[in-house]
Amino acid sequence: MTTQTVDHSKETKSVVRYLRISPRKVRLVVNTVRYKPVSQAFLVLSSLKKKAARMVEKGLKSAYSNAKVKGLDQSKLWVSEIKADGGPTFKRFMSRSMGRADQILKRTTHLTIVLKEGEKIFGEPSLPPSEGGKAKQEKPKQEKQAKAKKEKKEKAAEKAG
């Protein structure tokens, strides 16, 4: 039987508890940043238009600050573990017709983020391929259109002349 030793000195943890949002909504955001370098994770979170993204970003900042305090190399940090677990559920009732009542469950979330120091140094993230590639593709397309217009004008001039 082999035992694996884990070096906990190269990781930091941040736990944000009792977030007033359901775990299902937070997991959508959490899955986008899992296993990414911290710099890229911040970029992804800042571009998402979700309430959960702001909450995850806050937790990630806390874990990042913990890493600074521990003296870890910020350029090598990556999100090794991130999970959104269910917290306590607030139960509320909404009155309905004929004297009935429906139960409303207001769910809470416990968010856990673990950052590890990797082997590779992660630089500043570059533009996503969709944005960077789009600008490069538009130029040849415009050139082709301009060339086609020029040829049409030449043909029209030949016919007229």
Attribute tags:
161 residues; alpha+beta; Ribosomal Protein L22, Chain A; 2 domains; three-stranded antiparallel sheet; 4 helices; 3 strands
First and last CA, distance: 91 Å
What is the gyration radius calculated from CA atoms?
26 Å
Provide the β-strand percentage band: 25-35%
Averaging pLDDT over every residue, what do you get? Answer: 86
Give me the CATH architecture of the largest domain, please. Answer: Alpha-Beta Complex
Q: Give, in order, the helices and strands.
A: EHHHEEH
> Tell me about the biggest sheet?
3 strands, antiparallel
CATH topology of the largest domain: Ribosomal Protein L22, Chain A
Shape: flat
Structural class: alpha+beta
Tally of extended strands? 3
Write up what this structure looks like.
This protein has 161 residues and is an alpha+beta fold. It has two domains: 10-94 and 102-123, Ribosomal protein L22/L17 (Ribosomal Protein L22, Chain A); 126-161. The chain has four helices and three strands. The protein has helices at residues 23-33, 38-47, 51-70, 129-160, and strands at 11-19, 77-95, 101-117. It has a three-stranded antiparallel sheet. The termini are far apart. Mean pLDDT is 86; it is low at 125-137.
In short:
With 161 residues, this protein is α+β, with helices and mostly antiparallel strands.
Question: How are the elements arranged and paired?
Answer:
Blueprint: E1 11-19, H1 23-33, H2 38-47, H3 51-70, E2 77-95, E3 101-117, H4 129-160
Antiparallel strand pairs: 1-3, 2-3
Helix pairs in contact: 2-3
